[in-house]
Amino acid sequence: MTKQALSTCFAHVLPILCLLIAPLLLSCGLAGGAPAASEASLGGLGQSSTVAAVPEADNAEDAVGLQTFKSLLDQLLQQKADIEGLSGAADVDIVRINAVALKQSLIPWPTNRLAELHKALPVLAADLLHDFMDKLHSAQSKLSALCTSVEEYVEKTMFLSELNSQAKIMDAACSQVHAMYALLDGYKIKIPDVDKAGYASLDSTYAGLKALMEEVEGAKEENIGKYSSTLEAGVESTSKEVEALRNAAQNEMLLSEESAPAAVLDELQQLQTQLQGHAEELARLNRFQRLFKVQESQVDDLSVVQEDVALKMSLWSSSAEFESVTAAWKASHFESLDLAGMEDTVARFHKSVFRMERGLPPNKLAPKLRAAVDEYRQLLPVVAVLRNKALKERHWAKVFAAIGTTLNRDETFTLQALLDANVTAVKDALITISTEATQEAALEELLAKVTSKWAAIEFSVVPYKDSKDVFILGAIDEIQVALEDSLVTMSTILASRFVAGIRAEVEKVEKQLNIFSDTLDQWVQVQKSWLYLEPIFSAQDIQKQLPSEYRAFDHVHKQLKDIMRRTKDRPNALQTAGNPTLLETLTKSFETLEAIQKSLEEYLETKRVAFPRFHFLYKQLKDIMRRTKDRPNALQTAGNPTLLETLTK
């Protein structure tokens, strides 16, 4: 077959292939249930449209527009016409193409789809029509109903306003129904007779509703005037009832001391309930007046009577409540009282009484409640000072001495017991005692800081040279700083005028610190002398030449060695050096060392007389003696003529 023949054959077959593809594409949109966009030239049908399934839900018209249905109908009709217009056969050169079977297989698809649309569109149109007609009938029913009360008329006017605001929406809905039935008529789609009848009445029904809306709107001014009079009458009736309640609220028994509280409260509760009902009724009438845009009417006495009744009820209920609360306080153990809660409660009642006295006519109940509240206002400072946690037994003894009686602080120690003792009469004395307790507690805190500090301060004990059993004190700079700070603090405490209650304890600590200070000073002096003499008396020559001094030194040495051993085992500084016995021992040791050093100087004086040339080498001679432990022949060497000659030169 020639190339030209193949081209001619393809040109004849192409329209048939397009017709084969078109139903497949359309079926994807119509049977798939979702819109599909198709822009293709199908047998000369080149249109762009949104294709969707035939709607089944009531609101499906929102998703599928009438133009979509029109495009579907046009495409299906065009496809059917194109398929029917295909020739049964076509000759292409020596080839004959038979298209009869193809036509028979294609024609059912557009035919069946058209049938489906002809069935579904009337149902959809009927749904739109019935929904709109139902709304029209419902609106007509509400607008035509007779109003028997202001509430019903207000509801009708509000509904009318709602319809007026939705006028454009209703017009659009009516137009949609018309467009739907116009589509059915344009494509000769059969409409059931009952739907035709309903559609025929659409315009008249809609026009009737609009006429009814205009009628209701026109009668609005007249009806508002009529119902406004009704509202005014309601307000006037409410005003008269409030006046009657105002007179009832002026009954003398409501403020009489002789009245039974329960009966008065019951009467006031009824008055308050009735007044609340009238207030709600007035608010309802005013709301209608605002809707009618007329001036709101007021009942001037209503709020005044409500306030008067509320104050009287508050007076009686507050009196009963305060009596109950104070009775509970009186019966409570004094230590368990909630002071903060008592202060808040008394402040609340004080504020309430002030409001009652200002808003109520003269009566005896308010002053009575005022006196009870003021009594506890005077009592609260006393309760506060007696609840001071700093109070100790010595302070309580002063308290009982001030009130003139001793109370047992056991389960019987209640607020009532204190009231019976007339504690408010000595309030100033109790405040003074509480202040002393607070200040003493502050001083005790300072004292506790001092004692706790010294509980952690220890001596530093170090070995003497390479000895394993001889120790000396190490650095004491930090101890001396702490001692100075503590002595300053103790002076501050003793200078306070509130120290009397704890003076004995303070003086005890101060005395111990002073002993510690003296002991530490003496200890340092003893250790200094011992360090100076120990190398000297370690030499056997000195021991032989100064035997009595050596024995005295050895005694001090053993004492000091024992003291240092105990200090190493128990290094707490204050416990060790705050002992008066240690101070006495160190004082005697220092006196002994001083005597030894004096004897040593006398011994050196004899040596200096023996060696006149060493007159100006006195200190050097003592250093030589201190080195005799390491050089036993130091003194003999010092007397060597050769050494003298060398030194002279």
Assembly category: single chain
Put simply, the count of helices is: 25
Could you tell me how far the N terminus lies from the C terminus, measured between alpha carbons in angstroms?
150 Å
Helix content estimate: over 70%
* Strand order of the biggest β-sheet: 1-2
The main pleated sheet reads as: 2 strands, antiparallel
Low-confidence stretches: 1-63, 628-649
Q: What is the CA-atom radius of gyration, in angstroms?
A: 60 Å
Strand-residue proportion: under 5%
- Judged by helices, strands and strand pairing, the structural class is mainly alpha
How confident is the prediction overall: mean pLDDT? 82
Number of strands: 6
Overall morphology: elongated
What's the short version?
The chain is mainly alpha-helical and 649 residues long. It has helices at 3-30, 66-84, 100-106, 108-144, 150-165, 167-186, 193-200, 202-218, 220-249, 261-292, 300-331, 339-359, 365-386, 393-403, 415-420, 427-454, 477-495, 503-537, 540-545, 547-569, 573-577, 580-610, 618-626, 634-638, 641-648, and strands at residues 36-42, 45-51, 89-92, 95-98, 461-463, 471-473.
